Amino acid sequence: MKKCGSRFKNLMMLGGFLLASLFIGNVVDTNMAFAGGNPNEDCPVGTTLAAKYNVDQNEDPCEYDFEVKAGTSDIVVFTNEGCDGGDWSTVGAGVDICAIVVKGGPNADQQTFGQTMSGSFDNSNLPGTPDISNIQFCECIVTTTPTPTPPITPTPTPPITPTPTPPITPTPTPPITPTPTPPITPTPTPPITPTPTPPITPTPTPPITPTPTPPITPTPTPPITPTPTPPITPTPTPPITPTPTPPI
Q1: Candidate ranges 32-36, 180-184, 204-208; pick with highest mean pLDDT
Q2: pTM score, two decimals?
Q3: Alpha carbon distance 248, 244 (integer Å)
Q4: Taking CA 104 as the corner, what is the angle to CA 100 and CA 107, rounded to the nearest 5 degrees?
Q5: How far apart are CA 114 and CA 28, in angstroms?
Q6: Which residues contact 28 (CB under 8 A, 6 or more apart)?
Q7: Cβ distance 135 to 100 under 8 Å?
């Protein structure tokens, strides 16, 4: 394995790290935890892996290659990178990083801080300052606290006061005074005077005069003249000429 870096380069990286620490204004807390053992260290509690990069130590300077893993994406841009550290940024992806895990040799250096989108890293906290083999970027897990719903205080219903019913005063009925019936005076019937019947005078019947019947004169019958019958002239029959039979 190739050993990269020099004492001058290490000093430059350390100075860059100190400047980056002053630059990050939203750092809430910075903890560097050393983890021993060859396996990769997981992201700390409260974070989740956003991206992992393996260091190609055969390149000069060393290159950081994204490792495809489920739920991660290539969100980090490296500058001034080398086998012993570099600068990083996730501003383009808009992802807040809360921790990084730097692996080198059999050990890992876990660094936690407040939400940020840029920073620096190096191998200065790894025992023996070996070349970095991979680095993990851990995204903050944001938990949303639900807003408690205020209890509903029911509006008290005012009591219903019944309206008193006024007493009913009966209206007195006036006494009925009967109307006196006038006496019936009968109308006198006039006497019936009979109409005298005139005497019947018979009408005389006139005598019947017979109408004379005129004599009947017979009409003479004209004599019948017979129509002569014209003579019948017979039509002559033409003679029959036999047709000769041709010889066979």
Answers
A1: 180-184
A2: 0.47
A3: 12
A4: 85
A5: 5
A6: 113, 114, 115
A7: yes
